[in-house]
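Lab notebook, bench 4. The sequencing result for the construct came back, and we need a structural model before the next group meeting so we can plan mutations. Quick request posted to the team channel:

Model the 3D structure of this chain.
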Amino acid sequence: KRATSMIGWCGDGIVYVGNRNRWPEVANRASFTVRWHDPVDDAWEVKIQPYYTYTHNYINVVKIGSFTNGLSKLQFVNHNAQSYGINSSARARLWKTDAYGTGEVRATLNWVRGQDLQNHSSLYHQMPTNGTIGLYETYRDLTGRIEVTLVKKKSTVDWIRSEPRTPGYVLLGIGGSYRWRNFLLDAGIENICNTEYY
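Done. Here's the predicted structure in token form:
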């Protein structure tokens, strides 16, 4: 009875039951990176990294019951799982002068999908497609930045845990840094517009 009273193990309000017969996860990943860049002046660069991960004994759950209030009772089990995705980044120099320093635009784009290979559910709490685009200026030891974070709506969810679908969002951030010898002082505001997001 004590084991079934463990509520909110993952902060989701679901009741989880332990399992002493679980094995530790073992993940194997294969990936490679393709990079294009300006070989003369290093004025631009594009990197793309696809990857695939196979996880033996991935720690997931199975439904073993439910309560009258609608909450599920789940037990931890080992399943095999896979995940695959792409991480990518790009940058391009916009200007480089003695008077104004160096200006760059930088961007990232990340995508991942994961599946439990036994119950065919999506893996829990995986980030939807997301990316950033920002303007950076460096003048001597000072760097300033304005960055936009974009996250797609979450529609691929773990149906066993009744994971909610969430809307997409856009965040605006600003910041700056100062480098002195081997030290870097960095400060910023990641959500300057105080946007509500899930």
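The chain has a mean pLDDT of 92.
Will bring this to the meeting.
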